[in-house]
Amino acid sequence: xxxxxxxxxxxxxxxxxxxxxxxxxxxxxxxxxxxxxxxxxxxxxxxxxxxxxxxxxxxxxxxxxxxxxxxxxxxxxxxxxxxxxxxxxxxxxxxxxxxxxxxxxxxxxxxxxxxxxxxxxxxxxxxxxxxxxxxxxxxxxxxxxxxxxxxxxxxxxxxxxxxxxxxxxxxxxxxxxxxxxxxxxxxxxxxxxxxxxxxxxxxxxxxxxxxxxxxxxxxxxxxxxxxxxxxxxxxxxxxxxxxxxxxxxxxxxxxxxxxxxxxxxxxxxxxxxxxxxxxxxxxxxxxxxxxxxxxxxxxxxx
Length: 302
Fold this sequence. Notes:
The chain is an all-alpha fold.
């Protein structure tokens, strides 16, 4: 079989722009009349584009792929808002609706961005439902620990099928911080028992990955990091370590971003002197350098 022709990057950008522009034009002229019916129509157009992309090559395939993503996301969004308005759903009903939509569309629309966005919307509604029920922030943080553990386990696995699910759950882990950022519990967010729970989970992942090569000293360092920092720092460090272990640039970038943001959160909410905060920053640098040196041993050395 002939090798598939790769579309140049700038051509792909122009095709993506054209596909999204076509979707927005359709949204402007048709969808505002009846969100449910036209949302369903958008989803059908997305399915047709997806089918056509599988049977074409080159620029036409790229255009149909981008169009499928645009029409799918807009169509599911219109269906969601239309049904929510028609039935008067609360946050709990929105969560159930989005969960069903994510479960149904996951095997039908195979693009990673489509799957990740749909899963993230459902996870976000889960936290909105808990906030509507006035659940304490600490329990929302515990749910975020569960989401992170599920996403990390999926990222550690080799099956690409479930990676979009993981990337949809990961950003949802930060929702308790945003929900409580303007409340009196903001300073204590992502701390306390939840950070110890996350440390224990990371030790479990480390033991699962290494098995006979399990190092008690490294496990103890993970628990110490969880105790003296916050859960966001541990999440960032864990993603960064996994990114280096798998040589995955996206995981590395996510780990650096989460680690930096969580460290800023920790720095500004520490009730201590600037000198102690400086110690935290120095310790963070030493930790990153040490982790980098350790990960570059053996088969990962260059």
